Amino acid sequence: MSEAVAPRPIELPLLRGSELLLVTIAISLATFMEVLDITIVNVSVPAIAGTLGVSPNEGTWTITSYAVAEAFTVPLSGWLVARFGVVRIFLFSIIGFAIFSILCGIASSLTMLVVFRVF
Fold it and tell me: What distance in Å separates the CA atoms of residue 34 and residue 30, rounded to the nearest whole number?
């Protein structure tokens, strides 16, 4: 009976200098965009509700939909990164975030806004 051998981890070179600076800036900007997105909607619920003709209570669905989608996405991101790679998932996420942010900005109903916030 042979013993199972754990696979050896892939050793990647450490980032230094300008490469490390660029990665740090990219991750910092992405984190800033995500926090800004949550903050803007939290303080804008009354304006969103008024613009879309719904009650402020219904307007909170924009916050809830984002939080639920994030609760599913965060654990899933580990599997996605292992399957497709960090850079691909990061770029896909940033592009998707930009596209759906634009769609949220042009949403004409609460349903559209909630669906675009989920994505």
Answer: 6
